[in-house]
Amino acid sequence: MTMSVEVEALRKSFDRRNVLVDVDLHIPPGEILAVIGPNGAGKTTLLRIVDFLLRPDAGAVRYDGRDGPADPEARLALRRRISMVAQNPRLFRGSVFYSVSYGLCVRGVEPPELPIRTLQALEAVGLVDRLHARTSDLSAGEAQRVAFARAVVFRPDLLLLDEFAANLDPANARILEAAVLEYNRSTGTTVILVTHDMFQAKRLANRVALLYEGRIIESGSVIEFFDEPGDPRTRAFVRGELAY
Asked: What three-state secondary structure class fits 5?
């Protein structure tokens, strides 16, 4: 239940604006990598390419050392090993149970395993008591926690988190962060976390990379990155001298 990811010379432009420029990253199996940077740096675009939601203009993404397959069935099988939690997720209509269990249904998981795994995912985010609630009745924090449960219920090998706790109150953010750490600890799943919150990166990540103006400026362990940054732009970002 883990996956390595290699990003090589990745490029992406929109309307002649270079969003990603020769991005190189290597994420070994089981690592939590935080990609930080100001708004508009290209962080979400990077995740969307890794998740097959966008095509790069150039470069490659390799999963377990292999390029993303061109064959539709093989690509679908790979995509089913990847899950993303967006900043503003859209939940399915109906109950919380339905929204979380849907991913198991399409993968052919049946009772008694289906309800057991659904309850386990909801328990991880403290929402078993909201099992029968309608998703439209949830608070913003509860909705984000349901989105996380929905993302991990089928036990992905690669978990992508795009500002997944932004704009949440501290209590909901703490619950989600604890769920990420526990899920990574218990499964060994690889996690790529995109955030502009340096404190969250410190709390969750094994390694940190700064994406600035479409380029990876610097990467390293949490201690190296925050305590001994080598690039002046990294030092400026860590000190809060670059606009978020």
From this structure: strand
**Alpha carbon distance 201, 198 (integer Å):** 5
Q: Do the beta carbons of residue 120 and residue 152 sit within 8 Å?
A: no
Close Cβ partners of 137 (under 8 Å, ≥ 6 residues apart): none
According to the model, what pLDDT value does residue 243 have?
64
Rounded-to-integer distance, Cα 156 and Cα 235, Å: 35
Looking at the DSSP bridge assignments, the partners of residue 20 are: 12
Largest distance between two CA atoms of the chain = 56
Backbone φ and ψ of 6, nearest 5° = -125, 125
Selected from 3.30.1340.30, 3.40.50.10320, 2.30.40.10, 3.40.50.300, the CATH number assigned to the domain covering 5-89+156-238 reads 3.40.50.300
Hey, how many other C-beta atoms are within 10 angstroms of the C-beta on 57?
14
pLDDT over 90 at 22, yes or no: yes
Residue pair 165/200 in contact (Cβ under 8 Å)? The answer is yes
63, 122, 149, 173, 217 from 131: Cα distances, Å: 35, 8, 12, 20, 44
Both tokens of residue 233? 């732009």
User: Which amino acid belongs to residue 204?
Assistant: L
Residue 131 to residue 49: CA distance in whole angstroms: 33
Q: What is the mean pLDDT of the chain?
A: 94
Q: Angle formed by the axes of helices 170-187 and 140-152, to 10°?
A: 10
